[in-house]
Design a protein that fits this description.
Blueprint lengths: L7 E2 L1 H6 L6 E5 L11 H7 L6 E2 L19 H10 L7 E5 L7 H10 L4 E5 L2 H7 L25 E2 L1 H10 L3 E4 L3 H5 L18 E2 L6 E2 L2 E2 L2 H10 L8 E4 L6 H10 L5 E4 L2 H5 L15
Parallel strand pairs: 1-5, 2-3, 2-4, 4-5, 6-12, 7-8, 7-11, 11-12
Antiparallel strand pairs: 9-10
Length: about 280
């Protein structure tokens, strides 16, 4: 198990650190296209005082043709430095859903070398429910220097996942819905096949979240056990486009799993690769 105080902060804690130069607040809101929400517009309307907006779709490798893939460390450092974020600060990430995209933003910063990245418990909804202050408009931060230290072990490429699927050297855990995993529902992105990687397991990310917060350790352990996943073995998390896979990675981190990586391309890449094996039906027993 890990100390959740190293992963999460309360609204009390953050309210006490507003204006602290050693703390950077990041609105990492992102929503599925089907929700019809504009996170940048919502940020401009109301956000936590001092927060900057981190756009998952723009702080990305936009040349890849895949959604919100990790950018190069150099481009990432240049962009977040302009947002007033340093790798030496305590970074607090939140999102407008409570706990949806913030884990992906936290994973991105940690993969790029940030030392201390935490998530606001309950996200922006909890901040509002607690009667905390908000501000509107765009932030105008003073630029800082972010020194990137890329952690290649945190990420898996399609070629690495092909090898994993072929050899069984790690367990792939898919955070998509059961219907999409089994191939019973079409993929929301055009041109992608339905189904899952041979040998992979299915644990919809929402099973780890309740009321915009990560569930307790016992519930998380039970969910992975029910999905046939051993946290003591190497694991690769995947989903539709690499966002909710980070929720699974966060849950695994919380219960003490040590060998966890995220497949950045996820099904947006695998389902569109004609030579990548796809099966339908329930997970293999």
């Amino acid at each position: 198990m890990t100390d959740r105080a190293a992963t999460f902060v309360s609204t009390d804690w953050l309210a006490a650190h507003l204006g602290d130069p050693d703390v950077a607040i990041i609105d990492g809101s992102w929503y599925l296209p089907t929700e019809g929400r504009d996170p940048a517009a919502e940020y401009r309307k109301a956000h936590i005082p001092g927060a900057v907006f981190f756009d998952l779709d723009k702080v990305a490798d936009t040349s890849s043709g895949l959604p919100h893939m990790l950018p190069s460390p150099e481009n990432f450092a240049r962009t977040v430095g302009a947002l007033g974020i340093s790798d030496e600060q305590v970074l607090v990430v939140y999102d407008g859903a409570g706990l949806f995209s913030a884990p992906r933003v936290r994973w991105t910063f940690r993969t790029m070398g940030a030392r201390d990245v935490r998530i606001l418990e309950g996200g922006f909804p909890q901040w509002i429910a607690d009667g905390r202050p908000v501000e509107s408009g765009e932030a105008k931060p003073e630029p800082k220097v972010f020194h990137p230290h890329f952690d290649a072990e945190a990420v898996r490429s399609i070629d690495e996942v092909r090898e994993i699927v072929a050899t069984g050297s790690a367990t792939v855990v898919d955070a998509r819905s059961g219907e999409r995993f089994r191939g019973e529902a079409p993929e929301p992105r055009p041109g992608l096949r339905s189904g899952h990687m041979p040998g992979s397991r299915n644990l919809p990310a929402g099973a780890l979240v309740a009321d915009g917060r990560l569930k307790g350790d016992a519930d998380i352990e039970a969910a992975f056990a029910a999905a046939g996943v051993d946290p003591d073995q190497p694991i690769v998390t995947s989903c539709g486009s690499g966002v909710t896979a980070a929720i699974l990675a966060l849950g695994l981190e919380t219960i003490g799993a040590r060998d966890v990586a995220l497949y950045d391309g996820s099904w947006a890449e695998w389902g569109g690769a004609k030579d990548a094996p796809v099966v339908t039906g329930p997970a293999d027993k």
